[in-house]
Design a protein that fits this description.
The chain has 428 residues and is mainly alpha-helical. It is 76% helix and 0% strand. The radius of gyration is 36 Å and the shape is extended.
């Protein structure tokens, strides 16, 4: 992005002839424009954090200035803060009345950075169809979105082909093992994900007459392929499962498996787990095995919860409560701010997700606190038991040494001498 493309000029600061020498701006407008110019300078120097702060200060004076919002969105995007860039771009489009081409291209750029190519293409299409048909930036951006979408489709197709190759290889191995049962070499691979992943296929091949059972197994495999197509790439799933604060977000097993909490079909949940596990398994992610192992553990932990019917019901009830609390919180926020629209589905969804995560986090904090107290109590009990045992051991050692030591003999000898001496005195 060029500096001229980034830095927008305010109409209020421009003029012609003698009028250009007269500054009719109010003090707050002058200060706003100074802050904007400061931000533009930082942006051109690639000092994005100071630029963002300068733009934020300018917006304190003029919150609906779509040009400053556009520049702030660009600074966030350049600094890698994609969600914040999207937030400012949306405000820019809103406050510009939807008639400023650059606002839509800012929005599209933020969408593309988040991998939302379909929505980005729609934003570019809005520019070309409704605002500025010959906008070159929108034309190039629209083509880029279409190319990215095509690349994603091709990548998913490659993943499916790899899955089919793995499936064919697995069937081949199973046939070889069934024809050579004398050598049991499969023990080392019992824990391999692929064995678990195709357990249904194994059951079919182990039976003498599998012809009637092959159709259900084929259906299960097709379900898994469908799930893989929906999940995307291995890297995207690893990034999702290990994002910031993932240990709190992943307390919700439905979130980990990336399925709606309303689903209660064991076959769908199982297929989802197997597909997701295969995507993030360390053996399939040789470029990033450490993070893949952590992500795989998160998936397996979530499935352990889902396998418990009572836990699954409890989790679903917590999510329902989070949805209700989030909806109430969103309505309250909308009633307090006129700029927030009640029918904003994304805002509602974010509020519900936040409320749900808070519920899970509070329960986890309570569980950890109980565990901490329990450990502390057990440590105190063990310390008391150790003290008692030490006292008993010391007492036994003392008694043994006292009985077996020289002091016993001396005391007994002294007592006998005393008795003899006493008798002599009485007989004299």
């Amino acid at each position: 992005m060029s500096s001229s493309d980034h830095a927008e000029n305010n109409v209020s600061s421009s003029g012609s002839g003698k009028e250009a020498d007269v500054d009719n701006r109010e003090e707050w407008e002058i200060r706003r424009d100074e802050l904007k110019s400061t931000g533009d300078g930082h942006f051109r120097s690639k000092a994005y954090q100071p630029a963002i702060q300068a733009y934020a200060d300018a917006l304190q004076l003029d919150p609906t200035n779509h040009i400053i919002l556009s520049n702030k969105s660009a600074a966030h995007l350049a600094y890698g803060e994609k969600s914040k860039a999207l937030h400012d771009a949306r405000k820019c489009v809103e406050y510009s009345g939807g008639k400023w081409a650059k606002g839509h291209t800012r929005l599209a750029a933020a969408m593309m950075s988040l991998g939302r190519y379909g929505e980005a293409a729609d934003a570019y299409s809005t520019v070309l169809n409704e605002v500025e048909p010959n906008n070159e930036v929108a034309k190039r951006g629209f083509e880029d979105c279409r190319k990215k979408e095509q690349q994603l489709r091709e990548e998913k197709e490659r993943e499916l082909r790899k899955m089919q190759e793995v499936l064919d290889q697995q069937k081949k191995v199973e046939k070889e093992e069934s024809n050579n049962q004398k050598d049991d070499n499969g023990g080392d691979e019992e824990d391999d994900l692929l064995d678990d992943f195709f357990s249904e296929v194994e059951k079919a091949t182990e039976k003498p007459k599998p012809t009637k059972k092959s159709e259900p197994d084929e259906e299960a495999t097709n379900r898994i392929k469908t799930q893989l197509n929906d999940l995307g790439t291995s890297q995207s799933q690893i990034d999702r499962l290990l994002q910031v604060n993932y240990e709190w977000k992943n307390l919700n097993p439905f979130y980990v498996l990336d399925i709606p909490h309303t689903i209660d079909d064991d076959s769908i949940i199982s297929a989802r787990y197997r597909a997701l596990s295969l995507l993030v398994h360390p053996d399939k992610c040789l470029d990033d095995p450490v993070r893949a192992k952590t992500a795989f553990e998160q998936v397996r932990k979530a499935m352990n919860q889902m396998n418990d019917v009572d836990k699954r019901k409890h989790v679903r009830a917590l999510i329902e409560e989070g949805m209700k609390q989030g909806k109430r919180a969103w309505k309250e926020e909308c009633s307090k701010s006129s700029s927030v629209q009640l029918d904003n589905e994304e805002g509602m969804s974010q509020a519900q997700s936040k409320a749900t995560m808070k519920i899970f986090a509070e329960i986890e904090q309570k569980r950890r606190e109980i565990e901490r107290r329990k450990r502390k109590f057990e440590q105190r009990e063990r310390a008391q038991e150790d003290d008692e045992k030490k006292k008993e051991t010391d007492e036994r050692r003392f008694q043994k040494e006292w009985r077996e030591g020289e002091r016993v003999d001396k005391r007994v000898g002294n007592w006998r001498d005393f008795q003899v001496g006493g008798k002599k005195k009485r007989t004299s």
